[in-house]
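Students often ask why we bother encoding 3D structure as a string. The short answer is that it lets us treat folding as translation between two languages. Here is a chain of 367 residues written in the first language.
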Amino acid sequence: MDIRKIDKNFDTTFVAPEDIEWFSVRELPFSIHGVFYSEEEGLFRRMAKDAADATSAGVSHLSKHTAGGRVRFITDSPYVAIRAEEPFEVPFAHMTMAGRYGFAIYANNAFAGTIMPSYKQITSADPSFGGNGVITFDGIKKPYEAKQGSYQAEIFLPLYSGIKNMYVGLKKDCIVEAPKEYKHSKPILFYGSSITQGGCASKPGDDYINRLSRMLDTDIINLGFAGSAKGERTIAEYIAAQDASVYVLDYDHNASQLQYLKDTHFALYETVRNANPTTPIIMMTMPTINGYQSRDGHLRRREVIFETIERAKALGDENIYIIDCYGCFGELERGECGTVDNSHPDSLGFLRMAEALLPTLKKLLNE
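And here it is in the second language, the structure alphabet:
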């Protein structure tokens, strides 16, 4: 039996209202953050193509994923619809389709719903089954805030997918205005692994970086690259060239060997610091459940990060900080550990990571 016949809440079939008007998010007054549109490639990306291609094949591919991307605007429409096209990529076993392919809608910072492709829409795009390689889908949500008049809408883009086209549907003749500026318009830049990219949050907006954007009312740049954050010279120079309010370097997980981490960790810091003498830099250790950090290999990696901090301070750096995430997922209690696989956080784990960073970022942003 089809569960949609039992519970209508599982039916994501989209029927467009007769009074809908569609807008390209690439046009004013919509404001795009964390990603930009590449006319040459016909898609959104979060890192310049030449620098991504020069770093590694992994970064080249993943730079076309829209983690950290947001679309903002003000409206009084009783609904917000989304129509999108995404290049087909095989679904993950340990991450929801909403987290990988979906869009999360917030209204005045309150969660209003998620729009994502159906299983059928994903599989029908699979070239191995005769699909054309493009996932096409749409959906609609009705924010509660719409009952109160105009509201600021913020759409968080897919964490592990690219976007070829995106349109927002609003009621015809409703207000569509530019959003308020972020309180902190100069972005915080984050660099790291698959966890930084957002794996395996249940939906966009649940990862720790997007959570911090909402908590602090700040713009952000997500340079998390699954399996590909290896502190290469090219990516270090790219990070150093970005104008950020704070650099958060969550570099550890993807270093292949302990010696490789030793060879590259301080070098990454040094490259960023030389180009940005006074900008705060935060170094993070990998997040774990309480107790897991006692494993010898993890402890030795943690020591490398603390050594970078000590060397930097010995050189007179008074604007470097450490966020020790060892144990930040909390106690392993009744099977609850904040991860999906003892490595990648679930939404609870990401909340705990955000809470670990929040006090220091508040201080650095003069909150």
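Translate back mentally: The chain has a mean pLDDT of 93. Keep this in mind for the problem set.
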